[in-house]
Amino acid sequence: MFDRFLTPHLQRLALRILFGGGAFLWIVLAKPAPNPVSLYFLIMVFLIYAVVVFMWEQGWQTIRAEHQAFLVVDILFVGVLIALSGGARSEMHLLLYFVVAMRAPYRSWTQAFMIPGVATLVDIAAVGQTFRETHWFDFVVRILLLWFLAITLRVIGLRSITEKQRSERLARELSGTHDEVRRYTAALEKANAEKERRLAEITLLHRFVMSVRGLDECDAVYQAAFDCVHSVCEPAWIFLLHKRSANASRVETRTFGDPPEHITGWVQKTGIDTDCERDGIRSSKRFGQRGDVESWHFTRCDKEGASISLVLAFPVKTAVLLEEQVEILSALMDAVEMELELLRLRQDLARSHRKLTESNRHLTRLHELQHELNKTLLTSGDVSGVIHQAQEIMAKDMFELDRLNLFLPDEGKVMLHCLTSVGIGDYPLDKISVPIDERGGAISKAYREGRTIFFDGEGPVPEELRLAAPYSKIPAIRSRIFVIVPLIDHRGKVIGVIGADRKHTHSPIPPETVTILEFFARHVAMILSIAGAGNGSET
């Protein structure tokens, strides 16, 4: 700070003024000469000289170092003072020590030796006419002290310069180390903040996953997601919009915070965005006197077109989501999407397991029916009762069919007569017959073509599958949802048909049921073929 306000030029001016002022006080107090006017005049000239040198250095000299000529002039000024104040008897020679002490330490060795050399010559010249009055011992000691002082101060100056350079180097190294430590500390704080954020994110996701693991309903997953959102931020209203498939006509909406109806309608209209995988998308809506609303959207979609969207809604300028909160909510939505997908897979797996269990039960029951048919065939030969019993079991216990009829052709191969029937009540069997030609609709078509005919009730029944009058009036065989399975024996010959329908329940017959009916029809055809052969008749 001292060097900033007191430049080297100004420092030298201050030293010369101090030097002249000190000499003036000395003359006034010590009175070294009887007529000090010449001394006063000399000091005034020196002060004017100091100001002129300062102005010259300030205006024309660009270097900071002092010119050697000005140093010699300062020493000559002291010599003149010595001569005017008594020569050998003057004490002004002590000012030479002041000049040496102020100039020698921070100059080169050549200048350090030049200063006491010039001072010695000036001192000898200043003694002049009073040379004989000089005490030689004192004079020699005085000169030696000048040289000793110059050399000693030069050595001390060199050491101080060396220490200054060393201290500056250490200061630079310390500053560099401090900057490095500060950068490392900043990086460490940033890394710690990132770790804390990641830890909070992992903790939140772990809590969510553990709370929803093993759940069977989507509502429980929605509620767990709401709880986790509230641990991250405090929105006024939360919406979860879940579209379970691309073809789903309904979007499941769950809300938290009792939002107004106009906000719910707006979110339902704009919440599911076709541009999926968007996080922290901010939008706003003006509702006039009812207030403006801001919202943030987090949407996830899968390859099948299912989507889940989290919408956080606030009154305008009441809250702002930070970048860290957006990242945590984004990770939460990834977890919500994954858990909903796992829930769907668990539900699908449970349904598949139930179907597999039901199919195994049906197969087991079907093997039991086959065993009963084979046993009856071997013992009595009359299998119609067992077939009727098997039809009842299949229609009521296994496949939830409304009606199940077995048709066999007459001897002339003109009509198909119902041999056994389940689900027709008290309607007489002898009135359930259809012709084998096109008038018999799907029943006769399956018999003629030897293939399964299936209709699920979607749309009108095709013309070739309809019964012609008066057979269309038979209530026991009229239905819009049916399957007709041919009875084909081991020779590939069609010997009858089995017809099943769901006239009353109006639910489609699943393909698995059709497959098992075809298996059952092949076995019945084999039993009937064997029974006919044993009776000596051709079926």
Keywords:
single chain; 539 residues; alpha+beta; six-stranded antiparallel sheet; five-stranded antiparallel sheet; 14% strand
SSE arrangement:
Elements: H1 2-5, H2 8-30, H3 37-59, H4 68-84, H5 94-103, H6 109-127, H7 136-212, H8 218-232, E1 237-243, E2 252-256, H9 261-270, E3 278-286, E4 292-301, E5 307-315, H10 323-379, H11 384-398, E6 403-409, E7 415-422, E8 433-435, H12 441-449, E9 453-455, E10 482-488, E11 494-501, H13 511-534
Helix pairs in contact: 2-3, 3-4, 4-5, 4-6, 5-6, 5-7, 6-7, 7-8, 7-10, 8-10, 10-11, 10-13
Written overview of the protein:
The protein is α+β, with helices and mostly antiparallel strands. The chain contains 13 helices and 11 strands. It has helices at 2-5, 8-30, 37-59, 68-84, 94-103, 109-127, 136-212, 218-232, 261-270, 323-379, 384-398, 441-449, 511-534; strands at residues 237-243, 252-256, 278-286, 292-301, 307-315, 403-409, 415-422, 433-435, 453-455, 482-488, 494-501. The chain has a 6-stranded antiparallel β-sheet, sandwiched between helices. It has a 5-stranded antiparallel β-sheet with strand order 2-1-5-4-3, with helices on both faces. Helix 5 (94-103) runs parallel beside helix 7 (136-212), helix 7 packs parallel to helix 10 (323-379) and helix 10 packs parallel to helix 13 (511-534). The model is unreliable at 534-539 (pLDDT under 50).
